Amino acid sequence: GAGVSQSPRYKVAKRGQDVALRCDPISGHVSLFWYQQALGQGPEFLTYFQNEAQLDKSGLPSDRFFAERPEGSVSTLKIQRTQQEDSAVYLCASSLRDGSSYEQYFGPGTRLTVT
Amino acid sequence: EDQVTQSPEALRLQEGESSSLNCSYTVSGLRGLFWYRQDPGKGPEFLFTLYSAGEEKEKERLKATLTKKESFLHITAPKPEDSATYLCAVAYNTDKLIFGTGTRLQVFP
Fold it and tell me: For B89-109, how does the pLDDT look when each residue is reduced to its tens digit (9 = 90+)?
């Protein structure tokens, strides 16, 4: 079946521009997560949704970062007024969360470069 | 502070040379420990979930084990195609994952 998809795969933004990153989770998956991965590091949690509810946004680095999942399926991570330190790979993951399994399945990521 | 530490940072093996990767954690209320494989330019690929001490899971040349403080990923007779970064992550109290920095494995023919 289809896995998690993300678009665009690569994004170059000039400092100060706004960007929007899209995630299409696996069909039927209740939970959706966003992570940020710097080069040579493990992914770091940003935020997570259960259906359309944003249950945890404690990892968002600043108020320039905003995520939404209005219909409980596709999600968008928006970064306003991008800064160089925002350059990273942004990973999306989804999980069935059926009470007995918590595995998260990741998309290929969006590599954001801020110049 | 809740933490996940992986060792070694990098590992070079000859094809067929078995070894183990370590993941130690200091979280309380562990919900699950996860192993992922990540190839360059790709997202992490799910390998295993372990939920309780003493649990073991196997897949091809990989075997994951869990104790109360750490997990091991054993690689038996590795092949060059096993070369990747192996990530360990834990979930505790909530669904979010805390990742280690990974072990970069290179297997030479």
Answer: 999 878 899 999 999 999 999
d(CA A17, CA A69): 22
Residue B100 and residue B87: Cα distance in Å, rounded? 6
Q: Which domains does chain B have, with CATH numbers?
A: 4-108 (2.60.40.10)
With 80 as the cut, is the pLDDT of residue B2 above it?
no
The answer to whether residue A115 is domain-embedded is no
What residues of B are in contact with residue A42 (Cβ under 8 Å)?
A: 4, 87, 89, 99-102
pLDDT, position B92: 82
3-state SS record for B34-63: EEEEECCCCCCEEEEEECCCCCEEEECCEE
Chain B nearest-CA residue for A5? B43
Cβ–Cβ under 8 Å, residues A46 and A38 = no
Q: Does A70 map to a domain?
A: yes
Is A94 in contact with A104 (CB distance < 8 Å)?
yes
Query: Does B43 contact A91 at a Cβ distance shorter than 8 Å?
Result: yes
Residue A25 Cα, gap to closest chain B Cα (Å):
13
Is B95 close to A45, i.e. CB distance below 8 A? no
**B27 lies within 8 A of chain A by CB:** no
